[in-house]
Amino acid sequence: MVPPLLQIRGVSKHFGGFAALSEVSLEVAPGERFGLIGPNGSGKTTLINCVSGALRNESGSIAFDGAEISRLPAYQRTRRGIARSFQIPRPFKSMSVLENLVVPLGYVVGLGDTDAHAEALRMLETIGLADKAATPSNRLSQVELRKLELARAMAARPRLLISDEAMAGLAGNEVDEVLKILFDLNATGITIIMIEHIMQAVMRFSQRVICLDAGRIICEGTPAGIVKNPDVQRAYLGA
Amino acid sequence: MKFWIGAAATVALAAGLALSGANEYFFYAGYVVLQFVVLATAWNILGGYAGYVNFGTAAFFGIGAYTAVLLFKAAGAPLGVQILAAACASGLLGFGTGLLTLRLRGIFFSIATVAVIFIMQTAIVNWRYVGGATGVQLLRPPAMPPFDSYTRMLFVVMAIMAVVGVCIARYIEVSRIGRGLRAIRDSEEAAECSGVPTLKLKLFACTVSGALMGAAGAPLPMYMSFLEPASSFDLNYSVSALAMPMIGGTSHWLGPVIGAILLGSVQQIVTVTISNEINVLVVGVLLVVFVVAAPDGVLGLLRKLKWFHRSFR
User: Fold this and answer.
1) CA-CA distance, B132 to B228, in Å (whole number)?
2) Residue B184: in which H helix or E strand, if any?
3) How far is B14 from chain A (nearest CA, A)?
4) pLDDT for the residue B279
5) Which residues of chain A does B194 touch, with a Cβ-Cβ cutoff of 8 Å?
6) CB-CB: which of A86, A95, A155 is closest to B182?
7) CATH for B2-311?
8) Cα B269 from chain centroid?
9) Is the minimum CB–CB distance between A158 and chain B shorter than 8 Å?
10) A125: part of which helix (H) or strand (E)?
11) pLDDT score for A231
12) Is B303 within 8 Å of chain A by CB?
């Protein structure tokens, strides 16, 4: 068996008296398309914040590629190969679209300015934002912002990409567009964790799905199995 | 290239003026304007590029001045040594302050930096050797040739420091560090996730910024031949150092320079023609006008002009 790329063991996180995560354990295999679902406030974003380093877990361990990372600052996790997009896009708004990608290309990949600009432009072409390269990033439309989020995450050349609701608020054909980008990335060998509320998207995309509710994993399985699970139905629809 | 010629020309011009027969008062006033160029440029490294609004300029400035006094009293150190030591002391203070406060964001960081002023001022007030609360009188050594007055010499020294300060700020701005700082200002979380070591960069910016502020304060005791805590830790330094980049424009090294020359000169003119008290009012009114009418400062207004756009990206 291949060792897991990401191994989360017994991770807990409290905000005051509120248990956002309690004893969550899961594994993600290299190259896997992994879906994380759950109702609002179930702890999905908290979990990936703990993985990406935006938050520190209080107990348990998080291992990436066999090495413990839960005490590392976020930027070092990025350098080790974990990239993420944000639920609410957070572009570097004082910079152009191109420059947004130059930041990780410089800081993570270590490219010089000229190389970084060339590489950023190439990446923008792939994702379909090349004509916006010089546009200030605060003038993008919603779907362009989502694409920029993904492109910037990809510019860090990750092995694991965490996509936090990259499709929220997009129209049907735009969802397909973003989904295609993620499928293409996965085809190049990048492991992807998708957090999504759009069930149709997450079910089409994922090979395996875990459902969180109130900070606990209530169910794990194939997309087809998950939707039939009574616990999942209860979590989403109420008793 | 154009930049370096400009920098050299500025120093040459300052030296030329100082050696000319111009009225002594111009150097007395010009010194203050140049001092604000250094302070505003220094403030902008952390406040403008990284977006961390530092209210503690007076603390770094004052510690620079008192480091100079200490060295002068204890060892009769020459001005150059005083300035370097002041930069080190204030740089160290910047590093320490940064370690303690840079995990705070927004307004909380700003409040913490105000506290630094009061801590430093209280420490100096209770230290008899450097004059305590009553202050310390200093006897200026003779001016170094070719200058025939100490004020003229200090004017040139401050001009050199202004040019050096601007060079450092410009280097930071165009380098990878500058891009990292801008990323921090735009979104700290996204910066971390793009591999930017945010805490390290902020500490670096805070240290460099503090060191430059300290250097700007070092010649103050010699300039005034006297130093006392209330005026050297004056909150007005903090306000001016913040207002000048905001008025000039924070995104480019030229912004603080424009703001400092503009506001600094107006302050000097107002002091002479009306009164010293009106100074503060001028800063306040101009700041409000610019924040409301031109949030990107003078530079933001100029950028709309085509010729400027061509010359400065």
Assistant:
1) 8
2) helix B176-186
3) 36
4) 80
5) 75, 78, 103-104, 107-108, 152, 155-156
6) A95
7) 1.10.3470
8) 20
9) no
10) helix A113-127
11) 86
12) no
With a threshold of 0.95, does the pTM exceed it?
A: no
CA of A55: which chain B residue's CA is closest? B189
Q: Give the pLDDT confidence score for residue A172 in this predicted structure.
A: 85
Mean pLDDT of chain B: 91
Token couple for B149: 């007055």
Q: Phi and psi of B149, rounded to 5°? A: -135, 150
Looking at B164-168, B291-295, B309-313, which range is the least confident one?
B309-313
Return d(Cα A52, Cα A163) in angstroms, integer: 11
Residue of A nearest to B174 (CA): A113
CB pairs under 8 A between A and B: 82
Beta bridge partners of A160: A82, A191
- Minimal CA–CA distance to A167: which of A155, A156, A183, A190? A183
pLDDT digits (tens, 9 = 90+) for B217-241: 999 999 999 999 999 999 999 999 9
Give the rounded percent of residues in chain B with a pLDDT score beyond 90: 70
Q: What is the rounded CA–CA span in Å between residue B67 and residue B61?
A: 10
| Joined tokens for residue A93 | 């708004």
pLDDT exceeds 70 at position B312:
no
**Residue A110 in contact with partner chain B when CB distance is under 8 A:** no
Considering only CB atoms, B183 lies closest to which of A53, A103, A155, namely: A103
pLDDT recorded at residue B121: 95
What value does the mean pLDDT take over residues B21-43?
A: 93
Higher pLDDT, A193 or B131: A193
Pairwise CB contact (< 8 Å): A86 & B190? yes
Distance (Å, whole) CA B308 – CA B299: 9
Give chain A positions within 8 Å (CB) of B185.
94
- Counting as low any pLDDT under 50, the low residues of chain A are none
Instruction: Using pLDDT thresholds of 50, 70 and 90, give the confidence band for residue B272.
Output: confident
Predicted confidence band at B306 (pLDDT cuts at 50, 70, 90)? low
- Which among B193, B198, B203 is the top mutation candidate for probing chain A, defined by the most A β-carbons within 10 Å of its own β-carbon? B193
**Cα–Cα distance for residue pair A84/A190, rounded to 1 Å:** 12
Q: How do the domains of chain B map onto residue ranges?
A: 2-311
The Cα B114–Cα B108 span in angstroms is 10
Domains along chain A with CATH numbers: 6-91+142-237 (3.40.50.300)
CB–CB of B194 and A104 under 8 A? yes
Token readout for A35 is 């879906």
- Distance from the Cα of B93 to chain A's closest Cα (Å) equals 25
